[in-house]
Amino acid sequence: MKNIFKSVFSFAFIVAIVIGSSFILTSATDKELLNYISPLYETLYYINNYFYEINKVDFNNVIESAVDGMVKGLGDEFSYYIPVENQTQQRIEMEGQYGGLGIEVTNDPNGIKIISPFYGTPAWKVGLQPNDLIIAIDDKPVSEMQYMEAINMMRGTPGTEVKLKIKRGDEILDVVIVREVIRIVPVKSSLINYNDKQYGYVLITKFNEPVPDELQKALKKIYNSDIQGLIIDLRNNPGGLLDVAIQVSNMFLDSGRIIVYVKDRKGTIVEKYVSKGTNLPSVPITVLVNNGSASASEIVAAALRDNGKAVLIGQNTFGKGSVQRGFPLSNGGTVYLTIAHYNTPNGQDIHKVGLKPDIEVVETTDTKTKVDAKVYTLTDIDVNINDPVISKALEYLSKSKNED
């Protein structure tokens, strides 16, 4: 009974906060919110007083399912609920190593949507693609799970298998993937000799904490080689940390240039990020993107393009331009809600629209995927100049002139 009263009290506490908050909101009055919430409280009352197997009821779980359902009811794939026991899971990928499949995902009303597989990981090797929907894990429908429950089911002991049911357009695929220890190597680089000139190549696979230092090392080596141009490859980069995207943009932009705006739901600019300047020599730059380039990748790509520092080559990007904030609840869980949108320096809201490349190049399915996978932990890599997107970038750079 103690847990019942604790859970009901927690729910009542949430109700009080929501109603109290309505005085400063324009979307609903306190009376309207009370009407919305009443059926939830009534359901709790009936469960507590009439449900036959009341001795088996875990009211904490009932409340968590209700909160999870409320957030899913928003229809926003980027808003989600994380129970208290899963709080540490969200920070795992930012540390650069974890056990699982190697995919960046987001919530979706119809399943778990893949933003992008990480380069060289098990998900990448079996050919999972951006916008694939995971609709079942080990034959259990995702619709019956909370978001973090689905995430945790895909993680596990390296060497074990997990079965995913994938919806790709109208096609349903069953895929068995062997879990591995995922070591995210976020920065890879190379020098390309093309028509007797040197060009730099940097592949950024995710914007996590090690990126700024690793990118600085790679760029120092590249720029010391008297390059005539630089390729920044952000294809299938699902994003990461905003502050890392800001630091990366700083490396290429002159002082005082706008990197990104943040606008709230009223259209008010609540944050503006401005470049502190760069010490790097000015050379022509191309940024490679595709529909797996999302969030922080789109921020960097737009910042460089809108400020006249780079040309985008490839395919339209994913279109993840929303900002989430975590709101802690009295039960220990956290609700993450979309509270704002990113706007590019030119004022474009790219959410669910993406960035259109300056030069469009359609990628081809490459049989080298499984061969390349064995070297995905390397930082110095060989570049496939037959890749049509890289080939187009080299062609463009070879016709460009240095600004200095």
* Helix-and-strand structural type: alpha+beta
Q: Report the major sheet.
A: 6 strands, antiparallel
Cα radius of gyration in angstroms: 24 Å
Report the β-strand fraction as a percent range: 25-35%
How many separate structural domains?
A: 3
Q: Indicate the CATH topology of the largest domain.
A: 2-enoyl-CoA Hydratase, Chain A, domain 1
Number of separate strands: 19
Helix content: 25-40%
Amino-to-carboxy terminus distance = 75 Å
Average of the residue pLDDT scores: 86
CATH hierarchy: architecture of the largest domain: Alpha-Beta Complex
| Helix-strand sequence | HHHEEEEHEEHEEEEEHEHEEEHEEEEHH
Query: How many H/I helical runs?
Result: 10
**Poorly predicted residue ranges:** 13-26, 367-374
At the first level of CATH, the class of the largest domain is Alpha Beta
Shape: globular
In CATH, the homologous superfamily of the largest domain goes by the name: 2-enoyl-CoA Hydratase, Chain A, domain 1
Written account of the structure:
- The model is unreliable at about 15-25 and about 365-375 (pLDDT under 50).
- The protein is α+β, with helices and mostly antiparallel strands.
- Helix 1 packs antiparallel against helix 2 and helix 7 (about 240-250) packs parallel to helix 8 (about 295-305).
- The radius of gyration is 24 Å and the shape is globular.
- The longest helix is centred in the N-terminal third of the chain and has 21 residues, at about 30-50.
- Strands 3, 4, 5, 6, 7 and 8 form a six-stranded antiparallel β-sheet that branches. Strands 10-11-12-15-16-19 form a six-stranded mixed β-sheet, sandwiched between helices.
- The protein has helices at about 1-20, 30-50, 60-70, 120-125, 145-155, 210-225, 240-250, 295-305, 370, 390-400, and strands spanning about 80, 95-100, 105-110, 110-115, 135, 140, 160-170, 170-180, 180-185, 185-195, 195-205, 230-235, 260-265, 270-275, 285-290, 310-315, 320-330, 335-345, 360.
- Helix 6 links the parallel strand 11 (about 195-205) and strand 12.
- It starts with a helix and ends in a 5-residue tail after the last helix.
- The chain has three domains: about 1-55; about 90-180, Pdz3 Domain; about 185-400, 2-enoyl-CoA Hydratase, Chain A, domain 1 (Alpha-Beta Complex).
